[in-house]
Amino acid sequence: MSYVRSNIDAMAGYVPGEQPRSGTNIIKLNSNENPYPPSPNVIKALRCFEDEQLRRYPDPFARNFCQAVSDVLGVPADWIIVGNGSDDLLNLLVRACTDGESRQIVYPTPTYVLYRTLAAIQPATVVEVPYPDDFQLPLKELIAAQGAITFIASPNSPSGHVVPLQDLRQLAQQVAGLVVIDEAYVDFADGSALSLVEELANVVVLRTLSKGYSLAGLRLGFGVAHPKLLAELFKVKDSYNVDAIAIALGTAAMQDQAYKNDCATKVKTSRATLTQALRDLGFKVLDSHGNFVLATPPQPRAEQLYLALKEQGILVRYFKQPRLDDKLRISVGTDAQNQALIAALTRFNHPS
């Protein structure tokens, strides 16, 4: 006997990247975390946090944080919704907008596998449209599917490519449902699709503070969309889905753009160096606009390399699924961490 719904019983859950125990000496390059610490302003805000704020419920709309986002991005504060990480907002959108075969979820693949998991939980029918080898957006097929939600990650994980703005515009103009543009890695890219939100009422842009702002442990993200759509989403949102500490620290992080931009620049510089070093070892590496690279080893032994690196205390991400099982996704670390990775891979290629 099962105590859960049949679709839950049958589905496979989302599997996050491995998290080593605190204090272990591990080089962690598997979850696309920022290798640099959060802004000093964030640490100051944490130390100055008033205990009275823990006794009271937080602002259910995180208005101080929304204003900070508004000041930075130039969008009205009432066009912003805040979540417990952008994953919370993905879940909220799926719950509000999709249902079975009549209101299905569409996305190109390979991409963020949580989209599939959230669809299975709902449940909602999924249409997965394969990316071609050059990762050009398969517009014709996505438009033909006419999803209630079409998810587009840009920059995309695990490939790291960016979808051109014109392709996103054309997609949103020709589908009746929502186009949700997941910009989790936008701080490491050039350009954004944010302008489409004001241009087209069916566009939602999602952002997170986990990557560019070094706050993966905080769990804070936000979405930008037309207020009429947000009014519907607020009906589904948990009453207090973001805690007071996250609101205060996230506000401090948003207000220190200079620090975030400096860290992002360092990551992009290290990404270029890491990409070239991997190519020098014979790996095929796609040009990436995220804080990670997708690398294909010169011999078909991605899983073997993943396990060998793990034994050496270096975690990278291996996906045992079609089109990815010959590749490794490697987060960009500090220069020292990247050099340790390259040294380990060199030893595997040329054992003494």
Regarding quaternary structure, how should these chains be classified?
A: single chain
Q: Helix/strand/pairing class, anyone?
A: alpha/beta
Inertia-based shape: globular
CATH fold name of the largest domain: Aspartate Aminotransferase, domain 2
Strand content: 15-25%
Radius of gyration: 20 Å
* SSE order, one letter for each helix or strand: HEHHHEHEHEHEHEHEEHHHEEHEEH
How do the strands line up in the largest sheet? 2-8-7-6-5-3-4
Largest sheet: 7 strands, mixed
CATH superfamily of the largest domain: Type I PLP-dependent aspartate aminotransferase-like (Major domain)
Short description, anyone?
The protein has about 350 residues and is an alpha/beta fold. The protein contains 14 helices and twelve strands. The model has no long low-confidence stretch (mean pLDDT about 95).
Structure description:
The structure is a single chain. The chain is of the alpha/beta class. The chain has helices at 6-10, 40-47, 52-55, 63-73, 86-97, 114-121, 139-145, 165-174, 195-199, 227-234, 244-254, 257-280, 302-311, 335-349; strands spanning 27-28, 80-83, 100-109, 124-130, 149-153, 178-182, 203-208, 221-224, 284-285, 292-296, 314-315, 328-331. The protein has 2 domains: 14-37 and 258-349, Aspartate Aminotransferase, domain 1 (Alpha-Beta Complex), CATH 3.90.1150.10; 40-255, Type I PLP-dependent aspartate aminotransferase-like (Major domain) (Aspartate Aminotransferase, domain 2, 3-Layer(aba) Sandwich). The protein is built from 14 helices and 12 strands. Strand 3, helix 6 (114-121) and strand 4 form a beta-alpha-beta unit.
